[in-house]
What does this fold into?
Amino acid sequence: MSHLGRKILNVVPMLLVFSLGFFMGMISDSKFPNFYIPFVPPMPSPALPLPQLPVSSQSPPLQPIPPPPPSLQLQVAEVMRFLVPKSAMHNMTDEELFWWASMAPKVRSMLFHRVAKVAFLFLTRGNLPLWPLWEMFFNGHDGLYSIYVHTDPSYTGSLPEESVFYGRIIPSQKMMWGDMSLVAAERRLLANALLDLSNERFVLLSESCIPLYDFPTVHAVLTGSNTSFVDSFVNHDSEVRYNPFFADRSNITLAQWRKGTPWFEMDRALAVEVISDDTYFLAFREYCAVQPACLMDEHYIPTPLSLIGWMHNANRTLTYADWRIGEVHPQTYGRDDVTEDLIRKIRGGAGSGRNCTYNDGANGTCYLFARKFAHDALEPLFRLNPKVMGFG
It folds into this structure.
């Protein structure tokens, strides 16, 4: 090796230190003080002696590369401090957020042991009236889940610092029922959750949702599945919502038009596809701008799934809702409705008319979550919880 080559090798550690310090300085001084670094810096390996190659008498003996300085000895715990901050707030715009979140690592192997986490995305209008039940559900399972809450920007409530929901509200924007602002909120939740590389499954929930099983069961079903669970089906009654505008604006034909409940459970690959879409989302948003209560939240994700030919989808949701009452909203369960029989029937797919046995890793499980449950249903849910749902 030439004398110049040895000099280059000797300055590499110094360049690494300078680059790392410069990058971390940008992060700490930028307008993104709580930003999660969307990658893990490589763990340095011990310095190894160079092979003893023949050298000329005119050249100085080869020296081993010096070990990296202590500042490069990054520990996983320190890296994770940046990856998963206590507060979910940041100062990024949606454009910046979606750009960072759309990055997908190509190397699947990790430099440290990583357990797949489930990201629970709560889309709410204000507070979380059933939060004590969810606290019991999450209790004792730190490191296996992440929580993100999108609420109305006017909401000023708070929860105790010891709550798992404390600090988990993301930068939120105004939402309206039946409007594309709901879809924008869903994408915003997904994008924030994608910044944590340990999140492998993503579940959209409302403030009226409850878990039907204990956490280990829910985690095992979701992380053990090789498909997503997104409602996407042909519904001829929904054809009245199709407009030729979609064909002109984004080549969506009536044959590709799909409907489904917006309460999804999806994997990371599909989540990246959803937040990276800058074609269909814009078309849907333009349409809703001139069509109040367009109800496109029931069509936006299901329709692009058919357009891109996504194969890894069970075409069903794992979140139960009873639409048999024939209203614009599903059945709401209050204090007097919550019984052991109700929970067991919901878990078994009562009234769904569907075969819940799929080759998708769900092992015949019909539903993991259910809605809509009123605030006054909390007490009977607490009472039934240990016997029926199995946690608490």
Remarks:
- Residues 30 and 64 are 38 Å apart (CA to CA).
- The first strand starts at residue 117 and ends at 123.
- Strands lie at 117-123, 145-150, 199-206, 210-211, 265-267, 319-320, 369-370.
- DSSP finds twelve helices and seven strands in the chain.
